[in-house]
Amino acid sequence: MYAMEIVFIRHGETDVNKSSRIQGASINASLNEAGRKYAERAAQNFDPSEFDAVYVSPLNRAVETAEIFTKGQKELQEDDRLLEFDYGEWDGKLLSQVKKEHPDAIDPWGKVGKNYIKYAPNGESREDLDKRCGEFIDEMLEKYPDGKVLVVAHGTLIRMMAAHLMTDGEMDKFETMNNCGLAKFSIRQGINRMLYYNRILAF
């Protein structure tokens, strides 16, 4: 019986992550030394050979992570739909700063809430993020109905991918995965199952 499996990997650590700044689509940071080393340790426990296709966000931190995990075995297909959420004016700001200035735009879990956009009007809406995630997943289902797809991308983007598949786009139900964390979903005849979320391969 046909089923598509899709695995998401969040990129490794950058200095922007480390400083607890908001790192959206307009921030094109590279992995820091700790991020590269950690990704290399995690990749030792990862087999890229089972995947039919590998898609990656065009941002440096995702491409570098994908190169480490795929070990030169797979072609990387960059896709703009996998770019991180665009936080507009909030990109690059300290999370603690925006929480102090706009506490109503930070959710009880310390994440940027959906109403942030009234303070960052050039940012992306969650509805638009859900739409591009859905378009990407639909294309993968069409191309690889019984295949295995690897996607290397970003924390908020992966939260919405999970939400699109499992909760009709309610992203608040998902935590941001750790750097180099993995999530796996299986889709069969319109029924989606989450097999794991935020699996850690390096200790």
UniProtKB/TrEMBL annotation:
* SMART domains on file: PGAM (SM00855)
| Active site, UniProt feature | 11, 84
One GO molecular function term of this record is: phosphatase activity
Q: Which InterPro entries match?
A: His_Pase_superF_clade-1, His_PPase_superfam, PGM_Phosphatase
Which residues does the record give as substrate binding sites? 10-17, 61, 84-87
The record's PANTHER family line, in alphabetical order, gives: BROAD-SPECIFICITY PHOSPHATASE YOR283W-RELATED (PTHR48100)
Stated name of the protein: Phosphoglycerate mutase
UniProt source species: Lactobacillus kalixensis DSM 16043
Q: What is the lineage of its organism?
A: Bacteria, Bacillati, Bacillota, Bacilli, Lactobacillales
